[in-house]
Amino acid sequence: MIHKKDVGRNRYAVLKLYLTISGLWPYHSLRDRYICFVPLFAFCFIIVIPQNWLSVNADVERTILQRHTSYGQHLMTFYAVFMHTTACLFVLKPILLTLMSDDIFNVTKSSILFASRLPFRVEYGQRFNQHFYPIAVHCYTAVFAHSFATIAVDGLYYTLIQHACGMFSIIGNVLENIGKNSKDNFDAKPDKIKDDNYSKTLHCLRRHLLVIEFAEHIESLYTKIFLLNFNLNMIGGSLAGIQVLMNLDKSANDIAGPVTIYIAQLIHLFLHFWQAQCLLDYSILPYESVANWYYTSERCRKLLLLILNRTTSPCKITAGKIVILSIENFTMVLLLYIIPLH
């Protein structure tokens, strides 16, 4: 009798091996697929980015890529400081309120609810006060663990996007100079070996295809994450806005927490949409850079036509293949955020 496991183990062993490594074997659980896919995906980017740096020979191209890399690092540093500041404010708010209650109003510690000293509401039953300090450490650790994980995921996103934008910018710079020095001695049918414009265009075409594949990998990695993230942000933003409206007649202490979360979520979404818009803009840069095509050979023009044809469909980042991340669509999200405040 043939069992289901024997079919995959014996008759499709090679296929199963490669699908398992790729995280695509259908009989594995979703957790096992991600365990296999994420290291492979990270390994691919570890190879691709150094290869792109090694392929850059001219000083101008190296300067362009260095500028985009530095920009991505500065953006990640700003985001890390922003997230840690938000987490610290979220954690310190109940502590500061407790200290103010002890000092100003001369309230004893026993009269202050233990739950009010935590950054968020928890339910631990009747022994909550007895085990308050371990619970508090767990809550504070959870807040900072969440901020560290968010910084890691979003920081990788910003770095990859800026690297792709840098490569598109390099391709645009090379295409802009193709045919520039051929005005005086232009030849429509030169020898293939002597046709420098053809060699440069062929190299740009290969680079362009690799960068497009790189951008598609970024989109495939983050599309499901962004779909879940946007849904949670919309729900959280709406709840925070409603909480602000409910506490308008109370003190500023009751409004500070929801307002902080509200603004942090909005900035978080804006950075995602903004970087995706950068990828959209830079992916069509090769199309705008082909200016001196009429000073190139016929074989070179065919390659330029292939590049132009591919740039008509710009690279984009989506949320679940449904919503394209762009500044235009961010305005719609912003309206949805403002609606609860009216």
UniProtKB/TrEMBL annotation:
GO terms for cellular component: plasma membrane. It is found in: Cell membrane. It is a multi-pass membrane protein. Keywords: Cell membrane, Membrane, Olfaction, Receptor, Sensory transduction, Transducer, Transmembrane, Transmembrane helix. GO terms for biological process: signal transduction. The chain crosses the membrane at residues 12-28, 34-54, 75-92, 319-339. Its main location: membrane. GO terms for molecular function: odorant binding; olfactory receptor activity. Belongs to the insect chemoreceptor superfamily. Heteromeric odorant receptor channel (TC 1.A.69) family. This is Odorant receptor.
